[in-house]
Amino acid sequence: MDKVKNTPLRIGFQCLNYGFFIVLAFTCIYPFWYLLIYCLSDPVRVNEAPLYFLPRGLSVTSFNQIFQLKGIWSAFLISVLRTVIGTIVTVISCGMLGYLFTQEEMPYRKILYRALVITMYIGGGLIPVYLTMKSYNLLNNFWVYILPSAVSAYNVILIKTFIEQLPKSLEESAMIDGAGYIKIFTHIIIPLSKPVLATVAMFAAVGQWNAWFDNNIYMTKDHLNTLQYLLYQYLNESQRIAAELKNASSLGSITVQQASSLSPKAIRMAITIVASMPIFMVYPFMQRYFVKGITLGAVKQ
């Protein structure tokens, strides 16, 4: 096989191509690096001059304030539990429903499928949904984090589209051998649908981990608070305290250094890092499935 000659034009194009992607990678990575160096900088010195690549001073005050929050570890456990259980329930329910909608002999299949799609565009409204949760005794109940998000129309459509691209002869052969729908789903569909199931799992895990609004609406018991909601509360509280300290320093009650020791901006950035880190740790293990699953249906054969 002949090698491609490295002409000056080709070398120039490669340099531009590599340079473009290096700049693109830098623009994606730098915001997170900036978050890290800002919250690691000394709160008193951080405003002396703009930060670029290295922290000014070294302080873990922002992280210490976060990890010393009352109930932080129980909230972390609740977030982990809702993420793990919610992801498993979502993958199973959406997978089964997506497979069910591929069966042409299913009664009222088109009507039910259209009803599912409508839910993507028309919501039930906050008050009706709240009353529904109350009628099912899901208020102050851990399962209010799991059941309402068990089925996602978008995820069902994603799985249905993927399964429809699988050879129909596999199901027909299994049925001839006496396999039922459950056995076909567990022994044929699931092994062949790992890319799309991993994609749905990633979507569900990110959604569950980042969720805080349902905690705000449906929960009044502190022991069921999630990490995201606790951090949200603390961020608002830190902003209020910082404003009070600033007013106190202007009146001479405390020094400027004391007022600057609590930086809402640094805390906000530390919260972003703490909240994002688990997803960053999980994503590399699911990347190959995620990339393949997210591009399904892009090319039709």
Automatic annotation (TrEMBL):
Q: What is its membrane topology?
A: Multi-pass membrane protein
Q: Name one GO cellular component term.
A: plasma membrane
Location in the cell = Cell membrane
The record lists the membrane-crossing segments as: 15-36, 72-99, 111-130, 142-163, 184-206, 266-286
Q: Which organism is it from?
A: Holtiella tumoricola
PROSITE patterns recorded:
ABC_TM1
Q: Which GO terms describe its biological process?
A: transmembrane transport
Q: Does the keyword Cell inner membrane apply?
A: no
Matching PANTHER family: ABC TRANSPORTER PERMEASE PROTEIN MG189-RELATED-RELATED, POLYGALACTURONAN_RHAMNOGALACTURONAN TRANSPORT SYSTEM PERMEASE PROTEIN YTCP
Determine the domain of life of the protein's source: Bacteria
Query: Taking every annotated instance into account, which residue ranges of this chain make up the domain ABC transmembrane type-1?
Result: 76-275
This protein's name: Carbohydrate ABC transporter permease
What span is annotated as the signal peptide, if there is one? none
The protein's UniProt keywords, in alphabetical order, are: Cell membrane, Membrane, Transmembrane, Transmembrane helix, Transport
